[in-house]
Amino acid sequence: MTAYSDILLDTPHNGVQLIRLNRPEARNALRNTLLGELADALQNAARDEQIRAVVITGSDQVFAAGADIKEMAALDAVGLWKDPRPTYWKAIRTFPKPLIASVNGYCLGGGMELAMHADIIIAGEDAQFGQPEINLGIIPGAGGTQRLIRTVGKALAMRLVLSGEFIPARQALTAGLVAEVTQPELTLKRAIALAESIASKSPVAVRLAKEAILAGFETSLSQGLELERKAFLFLAATEDRQEGINAFLEKRPPQFKGQ
Ligand code: CO8
């Protein structure tokens, strides 16, 4: 397995790869090394048929405190333009398998944008979400303004981005940012259990479901319905669909193979 410095990879278990952000001294600030390693790990996970879902987590105190302010402060406009970060973000954005963020503590700036790249966020009661870039005289730069309005609507997106105020997990749940709130000590356990449950489904159906839902973010309803219809028809030709139906009729658990 590749050796990384800023992330830790657990041995995949029950089809789930756990990735831990691991820069405690900098509150998991997303320096280039970290984002590059994350992109690389996800690209490997995308190729590995044994891995059917990925969970990303931070520490008990912080998911990630944002971009690495010290690293980015050194970059002028041309430096930012040449920076590899957009390539890393693209690799995270296009990861085709389910990605679950398990969030405890601070989830700020680029850290919140990373969590929003996940398909599902599970948050501990202690989690705090915020886009404090405005306090630095800048704005979110990894999709924060766009994903927030599509996820929580204009009122809260404006409040978060313009004021830099944080919101607690419960409010993030009500706003639709977070899928579920847990006791802080149970967050990772729940995220892994959910990932394992998803990993036991047909990987083809899961992949197409993710693709169809994400398409809903950026396409018209009629185009989205068309895409869903085609994916639905495609799945009719898979062995997994037959296995799912047979298993139901035979009153046994299905064994999906991704075919
Ligand atoms: N980048 C770099 N280092 C950081 C960051 C960060 N985002 N966050 C914390 N650190 C470092 C601190 O500098 C400190 O280092 P040192 O020990 O060398 O002084 C160490 O981590 C510990 O930090 P604290 O003592 O502040 O830890 P606390 O547990 O008391 O507080 C907080 C944790 C609340 C998370 C606090 O650290 C904080 O507010 N961090 C910054 C949050 C923030 O503003 N995030 C948004 C970043 S901006 C962004 O994501 C997008 C664009 C960035 C471009 C910047 C260009 C100028």
From TrEMBL:
Gene3D superfamilies: 2-enoyl-CoA Hydratase, Chain A, domain 1, Lyase 2-enoyl-coa Hydratase, Chain A, domain 2. GO terms for biological process: fatty acid beta-oxidation. Signal peptide: none annotated. It comes from the Bacteria. Keywords: Lyase. GO terms for molecular function: hydro-lyase activity. Coiled coil: none annotated. SUPFAM superfamilies: ClpP/crotonase. The keyword Lyase applies. Belongs to the enoyl-CoA hydratase/isomerase family. This is 2,3-dehydroadipyl-CoA hydratase.
